[in-house]
């Protein structure tokens, strides 16, 4: 294996480890746990959804685990449960963008700005290559995660 392949793999491993540490520190700073931060991210990206859908997006069980997360986030002022406007029998979890979540957003925005600065340093052709590389790595992670979750 060429040295550059090993070096790239090592840097990806370090980046993954640092991302986990960042999210853990962010969760501790917000007074929640890392699973809660993952759920907040899913709600931020996808909008209001049922607890079951939130469980599916985050890999949590549809039973007690997701209920406990939503309870914690609601108590901490990050989310609210409400009736779905289209189907009043259905409950959805909605992110409250003011208050507690706004403080988390400030931290993420600062990280986003620093990422944007680094990415902007590369010419467009190299950014396209990095984008393709990242998508392929993410696809591998998604595939391996699915295999582990299905017991394969």
From TrEMBL:
Question: What SUPFAM superfamilies has UniProt attached to this entry?
Answer: Winged helix' DNA-binding domain (SSF46785)
InterPro entries membership: HTH_MarR-typ, MarR/SlyA-like, WH-like_DNA-bd_sf, WH_DNA-bd_sf
The record's GO molecular-function terms, alphabetically, read:
DNA-binding transcription factor activity
Q: Which GO terms describe its biological process?
A: response to stress
Q: Which SMART domains match?
A: HTH_MARR
Q: Describe the location of the HTH marR-type domain by residue ranges.
A: 1-139
Q: Which Pfam families match?
A: MarR
Q: What is this protein called?
A: Transcriptional repressor MprA
Q: What species is given as this protein's source? A: Streptomonospora litoralis
């Amino acid at each position: 294996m060429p040295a550059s392949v090993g070096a790239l793999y090592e840097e990806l491993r370090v980046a993954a480890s640092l991302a986990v540490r960042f999210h853990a520190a962010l969760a501790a700073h917000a007074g929640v746990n890392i699973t809660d931060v993952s759920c907040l991210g899913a709600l931020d990206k996808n909008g209001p959804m049922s607890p079951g859908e939130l469980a599916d997006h985050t890999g949590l069980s549809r039973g007690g685990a997701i209920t406990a997360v939503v309870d914690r986030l609601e108590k901490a002022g990050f989310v609210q449960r409400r009736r779905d406007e289209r189907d009043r029998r259905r409950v959805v979890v909605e992110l409250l963008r003011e208050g507690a979540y706004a403080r988390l957003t400030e931290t993420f925005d600062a990280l986003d700005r620093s990422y944007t600065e680094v990415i902007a340093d590369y010419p467009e052709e190299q950014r396209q290559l990095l984008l393709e590389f990242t998508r392929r790595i993410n696809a591998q992670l998604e595939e391996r995660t699915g295999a582990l979750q299905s017991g394969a």
